[in-house]
Fold these 2 entries.
Entry 1:
Amino acid sequence: MRFGHIHGSADTVRVLHLTDPHLFAAKAGDLRGTVTYDALRQVLAHYEANDWRADLVALTGDLIQDDSAGAYEHCRELLSSLGLPIHCVPGNHDVRSLMRDALPEPPFIYCGSAEVSNWLIVNIDSCSADRAGGSVTEDELARMESIIASSNAEHVLVCLHHPPVPMGSAWLDTVGLDNGNELLKRMQTARRVRLAIFGHVHQAYDVAHDGIRIIATPSTCRQFLPRSDDFALDDRPPAYRRIMLQTSGEADTELIWVNDA
Ligand SMILES: [Fe+2]
């Protein structure tokens, strides 16, 4: 499915990666001292105020914090104004039924896929009920493989909430992805996967793993301290990432810290 402007010929695809906004029904709701509604608004204002323009948004989970439909309404209202297709997946703090009800139609696409230029973007669900860690079910792995198999796109971007690899942070790695190795193996087997992006870890990460680049973007609100064995906050500001998917299969990215938030 294609949304927004259609690329007639192969072209760079620009992805605005936003993750873990943790909104509340109350606009004044705060996550460990950061008012998450204001932080997301400031991130979006930074995007709007600059020249760089995205073709689509990847929103990789933890949209809300308080299990409320109202928080999803805020999410819808803030992000709709971008005028872009918004691919979203649930995070462990999301409530799938509320999320699907609140974001049922374009510009929001829940766990969908899209071909843009010579890239295929596949969004997968990595959440398990009632726990912070995740796993990708066999059904979901098979769905990913079948979407890739039925596309002629040369390159694939996979979006999910949980990290496919350990982060080197003891506490975070107890709430990571149980079957990250299996996911990586299946992405390898699918051959054309060049990049996987995720949230959950509220910090920046960027490694290559057997030819697949794996990138985390910090939250649009509060950050965690990288490589910390115990839970610890990082005082870095809200952030987002610009991702340029090149026709060659490479990706260039730019991490933006929004310091005025
Ligand atoms: Fe989160």
Note: DSSP finds six helices and 16 strands in the chain.
Entry 2:
Amino acid sequence: MKKILVTGGAGFIGSNCCNALVRDGHTVVAFDNLSLGTGDALEPGVQLVKGDVRDAAALQALGPVDFVIHLAAASSAPMFTDDFIGSIANNVLGHVTVLEYARKNGVQKVLFASTSSIYGNNPTPLTEDQRVEPPNFYSVTKHAQEELSSVYNALHQLEIIGFRFMSVYGLHEEHKGRFANLVSQFIWGIEKRKRPVLYGDGNQTRDFVNVRDIIEAFRLVLETPKRFGYTIFNIGTEHALSLRELVSVIGGIMGEAIEPILVPNPISKGYVMAQQADASKIKSELNFEASVTLDTGVREIVEYRKKHKKEPVSLSF
Ligand SMILES: NC(=O)c1ccc[n+]([C@@H]2O[C@H](COP(=O)([O-])OP(=O)(O)OC[C@H]3O[C@@H](n4cnc5c(N)ncnc54)[C@H](O)[C@@H]3O)[C@@H](O)[C@H]2O)c1
């Protein structure tokens, strides 16, 4: 069993990840500055340490670990409007501070979250070898994390694996509020009989991947004896769904025949019209295939929220 540090461990993907790894029998430290995540969803057994990934001394005080899963970040493009300099510093300085901690403490592998947003409006399905032109500051910082990791590996031989997640949804996103995935936000809205608001004609597509599949990909990367040096993997279902279809799927499961409201798209630059992963690289390297269907994933959230009602901090519509 391993000791694993999960930065951003009180957040959405982080808390699901920490819980799953503790259930697997690992020793797990969730390190989070609680700027957005709360840690409420963490199960007993996960050790929550409050601290900032830009604080080298706070990381060093954790002592050595076997693996780092680095998820702490300004995790959404609109956050860069709210706090431009702070968000850039968080994602760039935080990333290199975590890499330095890992190198100095003999960490075996660093996994980190990049994003599919860096593909912008590239032709789908999206492949890791496509040229990327990040369309917003959020994805610029994620691209910077990738480039920094590549050079860091070349100079210091630290094993670093980045993941370009598609649109991740699942349990425990309430703290993200208006920054949460649309699956969660549409469920929260429909619970209150609010009609989801879609930009444009609602035919833009997304590849909605459940957080449990993200964790399965982490497990495969942690467990494999293969060495990659530095590499990047897309993680998605390889299926694209329009937002109109998404509203209809969720409405069907919740028993509400709800029609979305269509509004002109307020995002004039960099809005992604189509997202669909080609996940053949991680499939051929590690035999990964996303297995949670949207139907299963949505039902899981709807049923969980009937028993554990928690208000999202905000909603984007
Ligand atoms: N959710 C998605 O669809 C998605 C898609 C692509 C990439 N990602 C990336 O995955 C990672 C996790 O995202 P999430 O959806 O769980 O978001 P999240 O905001 O819930 O998680 C991020 C966590 O990091 C913490 N944090 C922020 N800055 C920190 C700092 N300087 N030091 C310590 N903790 C800090 C926050 O409090 C929060 O708990 C992020 O890097 C995000 O950019 C997410």
Note: The chain has a mean pLDDT of 97.
